């Protein structure tokens, strides 16, 4: 470590220590435990004893700094020896079977993993047998190091975390210069464009139309002698006419479902319809602000007061009402409202679109020319939806799962048809008489007569559904539910892929449950239209209980594909960080998988990976494995991760499709 770097580190550690230690400038055991975010007493006490050199039952600043300095500058073997000491509770120089069991139990507790006592006993015995080479009854430091040598990634994490634990939680990031930022954004944009040619084309057309409309209005009113404020106001108004009509088109779900399945599906970015609807909404807000400000500035040049023109003229009053209504709708549609536990606020304020269109038709003398066709299409869409949603479907099952997910199963009428990967809107009057919410269908069409969805308890409605499910007994009547749909999703393109990579984050796995089942059923039936040769399924969850949703189904599919020629399932438990406290659990899980051929947590063929996926390496391996084949990535999960994956996919020339509904 360089002198300058070490000086900065020590200075930062001193500041952190003083903040954590309080007025007495000492860390006791409880303060030490909280500082390192340790849940289990074993690791907290053991590490505290190793830092507290003078056995004073408190850590002074000098002890704290000296320990970090030693661990930061130590070589790999020294850090491995430190890790061994951490796992040798009595400093005897050897770890016996009882101590190993205690360590595994502490590792399980620290990371919130739940295992039965007999499982921990079995893990301890398997790992002890593997590590105790000389059958001495204890694992010494050399045997401990030999075990780690078999796990290079874990060894790297283990030796790094010895020093990183007491370092600052996040190292200062170097601020990239302007040119570096620009190059990164250009590269990212170029990759996205190469992977979304249809979207790029139509976005370019959309932008050019807006520019042309704005400029034409400005020139027209300039030729009539209007001032600059009127010119800008009319330009904004022309664009509002266009966007106000266009915003309805991405909401024609039946039209989009038909279009996606037709020969024209690849010509339009149907999968991005929701994103385009949001974009048009933001553009409308921008033009509404421009239009309003320009008119107000123009009013300031006229003989009467601004209030007179704004509230006592037809155009002014309808314009003020339009702006106020649209502002409420726009704010309530923002992410922090919809995803922040206030979905109902978004849902009900969005019904203001009816009043907005009425006011817009009253306000703009030519708006009807733009909006008549989209409005007619939307009316037809609503009629179709109304006809389809009047059917009451009996609820067969309402099952609360351990991880806060509710499985809702409906009995379908004979003529109801849906495709694998479709989603539906569901209204369940026992939870709410008016609200509709979209969910991916988790059964496949081959499972006739029923339709199920898995609903994670995130918002008010979904939490009420889970509470309702928990309150029901086996003899209770579950009532009926109503369905709006089905509607198509990007996932339906999977069946035309050569190599399909399915990535689900948490409840984002739901589209792929039905798809995987359908893939196997079609493959077994010898479907000539099925082009998929290999499927990679990657599923991430923070909580081990979340794997209960579909792990049994995936295990059944693995039994149908004994050699793993068609399905490769990779599971990640992201709530566990790979460090010293999880080291023994990670090794024990690996030993268990090698011994039994099954994963400890899920029962699947491949063992559960602890920590987050290393996406650049995963995609590089996929590119190497399928160098001569077309790889398509299908993702359902949070937007930030989708953005990251789309960039990496584009880098390797993979197709990328994200679920949006």
Structural commentary:
There is one protein chain. The protein has 661 residues and is of the alpha/beta class. The chain folds into four domains: 162 residues, Recoverin, domain 1 (Orthogonal Bundle), CATH 1.10.238; 202 residues, no CATH class; 100 residues, Translation factors (Elongation Factor Tu (Ef-tu), domain 3, Beta Barrel); 130 residues, Rossmann fold. The strands form two sheets. A six-stranded antiparallel beta sheet has the order 4-3-6-1-2-5. A six-stranded parallel beta sheet has the order 10-9-8-7-11-12, sandwiched between helices. Strand 8, helix 23 and strand 9 form a beta-alpha-beta unit.
Q: Please, what is the average pLDDT? A: 82
The DSSP helix count reads: 26
Query: What is the CA–CA distance across the termini?
Result: 50 Å
Strand content: 5-15%
Describe the largest sheet.
6 strands, antiparallel
Unreliable segments of 5+ consecutive residues: 166-174
Computed over alpha carbons, the radius of gyration is 31 Å
- Which structural class fits the helix and strand makeup? alpha/beta
Helix content: 40-55%
Placed side by side, the strands forming the largest sheet appear as 4-3-6-1-2-5
Structural domain count: 4
Number of strands: 12
- Shape by Cα distribution: globular
């Amino acid at each position: 470590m360089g002198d300058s770097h070490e000086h900065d580190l020590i200075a930062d550690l001193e500041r952190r220590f003083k903040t954590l230690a309080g007025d007495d400038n000492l860390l006791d055991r409880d303060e030490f435990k909280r500082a390192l975010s340790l849940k289990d007493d074993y690791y907290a006490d053991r590490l505290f004893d190793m830092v507290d050199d003078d056995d004073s039952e408190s850590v002074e600043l000098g002890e704290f700094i000296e320990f970090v300095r030693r661990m930061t500058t130590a070589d790999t073997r020294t850090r491995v020896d430190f890790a061994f000491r951490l796992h040798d509770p009595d400093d005897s120089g050897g770890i016996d079977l009882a101590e190993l069991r205690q360590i595994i139990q502490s590792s399980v507790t620290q990371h919130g993993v739940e295992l039965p006592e007999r499982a921990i006993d079995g893990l301890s015995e398997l790992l002890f047998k593997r590590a105790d080479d000389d059958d001495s009854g204890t694992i010494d430091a050399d045997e401990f190091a030999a075990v780690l040598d078999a796990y290079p990634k874990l060894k790297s994490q283990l030796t790094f975390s010895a020093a990183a634990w007491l370092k600052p939680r996040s190292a200062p990031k170097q601020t990239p210069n302007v040119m570096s930022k620009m190059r990164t954004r250009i590269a990212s944009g170029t990759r996205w464009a190469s992977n979304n040619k249809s979207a790029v084309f139509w976005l370019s057309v959309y932008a050019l139309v807006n520019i042309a409309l704005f400029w034409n209005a400005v020139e027209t009113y300039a030729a009539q002698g209007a001032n600059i404020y009127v010119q800008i106001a009319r330009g904004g108004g022309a664009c509002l006419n266009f966007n106000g009509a266009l915003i309805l088109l991405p909401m024609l779900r039946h039209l989009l479902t038909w279009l996606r399945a037709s020969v024209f599906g690849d010509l339009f970015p149907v999968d991005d319809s929701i994103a385009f609807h949001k974009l048009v909404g933001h553009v409308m807000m921008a033009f509404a602000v421009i239009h309003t400000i320009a008119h107000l500035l123009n009013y300031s040049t006229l003989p009467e007061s601004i209030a007179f023109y704004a509230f006592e003229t037809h155009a002014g009053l309808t314009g003020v009402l339009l702006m106020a209504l649209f502002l409420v709708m726009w704010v309530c549609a923002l992410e922090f409202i919809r995803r922040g536990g206030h979905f109902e606020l978004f849902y009900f304020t969005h019904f203001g679109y009816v009043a907005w269109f009425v006011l817009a038709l009253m306000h703009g003398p030519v708006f009807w020319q733009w909006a008549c066709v989209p409005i007619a299409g939307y009316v037809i869409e609503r009629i179709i939806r109304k006809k389809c949603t009047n059917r009451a479907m009996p609820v067969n099952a309402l099952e609360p799962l351990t991880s806060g997910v509710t499985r809702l199963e409906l009995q379908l009428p004979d003529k109801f048809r849906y495709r694998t990967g479709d989603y539906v809107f569901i209204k369940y009057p026992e939870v709410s008489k008016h609200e509709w919410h979209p969910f991916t269908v988790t059964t496949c069409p081959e499972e006739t007569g029923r339709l199920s969805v898995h609903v994670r308890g995130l918002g008010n409605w979904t939490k009420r559904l889970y509470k309702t499910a928990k309150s029901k007994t086996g003899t209770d009547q579950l009532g009926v539910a109503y369905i709006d749909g089905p509607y198509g999703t990007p996932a339906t393109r999977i069946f035309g892929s050569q190599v399909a990579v399915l990535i689900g984050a948490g409840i984002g796995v739901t589209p792929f449950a039905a798809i995987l089942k359908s893939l196997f059923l079609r493959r077994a039936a010898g479907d000539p239209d099925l082009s998929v040769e290999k499927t990679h399924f990657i599923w991430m969850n923070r909580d081990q209980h979340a794997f209960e949703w579909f792990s049994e189904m995936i295990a059944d599919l693995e039994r149908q594909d004994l050699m793993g020629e068609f399905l490769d399932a990779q599971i990640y438990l992201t709530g566990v960080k790979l460090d010293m406290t999880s080291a023994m659990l990670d090794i024990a899980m690996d030993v268990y998988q090698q011994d039994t051929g099954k994963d400890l947590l899920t029962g699947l063929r491949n063992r559960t990976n602890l920590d987050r996926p290393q996406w650049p390496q995963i995609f590089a391996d996929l590119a190497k494995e399928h160098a001569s084949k077309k790889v398509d990535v299908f993702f359902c999960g949070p937007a930030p991760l989708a953005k990251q994956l789309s960039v990496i996919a584009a880098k390797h020339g993979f197709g990328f499709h994200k679920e949006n509904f």
